[in-house]
Amino acid sequence: MKQTYICIAIFLSLAASRFIPHPPNFTSLIALSFYVPALFGFKFIFLVLIAFLLSDLIIGLHQTVLFTWSSVILIGAISLYFNKSILFRLCGAFTGAIIFFIVTNLGVWSLGSYGYNLNGLLACYVMALPFFGYTAISTFIFSAIIEIVYKFYKFLPKKIFY
Fold this sequence. Notes:
Blueprint: H1 2-19, H2 29-40, H3 45-59, H4 65-79, H5 86-110, H6 118-155
Helix pairs in contact: 1-3, 2-3, 2-4, 2-5, 2-6, 3-4, 4-5, 5-6
């Protein structure tokens, strides 16, 4: 029963942050990709991927979807190394934002719009910097929300969830 609530909460959090009008790259994706495995174990990363897939099916799939999904898996994997304290988790979530930026923009560059050379690669990353700002800000905001909810959840009587 507890896992059902977690699944629903993950999907609703991700879907809401993707469907409600927002600045580009301002979603809960990276925070969820980091915190779900950090707090519940790496085996739960598939829940984030399923929620992401379902919302992608509604919004529309894109050519770099494999890069995006693989960044989610990488972020989930690193979360296991940043789970010592709140400060470590926040640093880990920011590292996740950097991983997302690097991996997804490599995918954009691989489409050939910027040219298959070093100048094209650099141009691709420079053009994406404004989007990274939104990614970093949203990652910190959603991470703070998750930290607060998690601390609140730990102090609730366990009878409520059973």
